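Ticket #4471: structure export looks truncated?
Reporter: QA, pipeline team
Priority: medium

Steps to reproduce: submit the single chain below to the structure queue and open the exported record.
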Amino acid sequence: MYADKNEIEWLLFESGISVKDIYTESGVARTTVIDLINKTSSIDKMRFDNAIKLTKMAIIRKKLYENQ
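Actual output as written to the record:
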């Protein structure tokens, strides 16, 4: 298990995936996702378990985009 800040930033700011899709698919709380996107919470200071979930989702979504 690992977390990757670059993957999380891609997911939140570059992927175009909706907030709803991110929180429902990743399992991270809606308020946490919104706070990260609005930068009221820091990716560097987020809980490790949430960082792992967002990293996993980013990797899966990138693979899906590559296969299209």
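Status: closed, not a bug. The export was complete when the record was re-opened. Leaving a note from the reviewer for reference: The mean pLDDT is 96.
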